[in-house]
Input
Amino acid sequence: MKNDLNYAVELIQKADGILITAGAGMSVDSGLPDFRSVGGFWNAYPMFREHNINFEDIATPLVYQRNPDLAYWFYGHRLVQYRNAVPHEGYQILKRWAEAKPHGYFAFTSNVDGHFQKAGFDESRVYEVHGTLERQQCVENCRGLSWQAVDFHPEVDNETLHLTSEKPHCPYCGGLARQNVLMFNDWTYSSNYQDFKKLRLDAWLKEVENLVVIELGAGKAIPTVRYFSERTAKMKKGGFIRINPQDAGVPKMHFLSLEMTALAALKAIDELL
Output
């Protein structure tokens, strides 16, 4: 089914729990860049175009060995950018809908910006499948642990592409620390913190009887969110709403696709609820 806002209202009204799944398109409406769209990374970081540096070249733990100054600048620049951005109104709309349900909500996101928590979502109910910039870990993953990055306030020089403040360190071994994010070719990512939340998500799904999955801005380039959304909706025989202005196709006739941006769709549905 396609672009039927009334059907979206029906699915949300009859649900007793809402699974929110979100990709980069959810963050775009808050003014953050989408690295996976065509030209998206170079549009956000034009200085890398002339050196033919792609997202995959810098979003890897290998860059901490090859060019640590550039690695820490990129980490620091992104963290500052994400912290300065304000989550858009759609987060509050979703939170209001979900908190009115008997089983509430759970969020599953590939975004690493921490905006669900910044918008007031319960930290224990946000599973960040690729980790988050708001946590750190040892570069060597010495203990398999991660910790909050609240004490890391990076200062960056965007002309020289350097971190001018002190680099973060591991509190356990004293070595350097990095973002607790699953990167490309990443064999040292510490998943323990998110693994516990995945267990809680699995337990929550067993409790919900009438689930609706609301997927927002999840693209095909890295389809982690799309696969999880479809698989969960099928498994639970629940409702499914895919919101995406470009890749809104759905695999089942009773699944709903809305060819809209995340914020526009949420506001339009909210007016009808």
Q: What stands out?
A: The chain is about 35% helix and 20% strand.
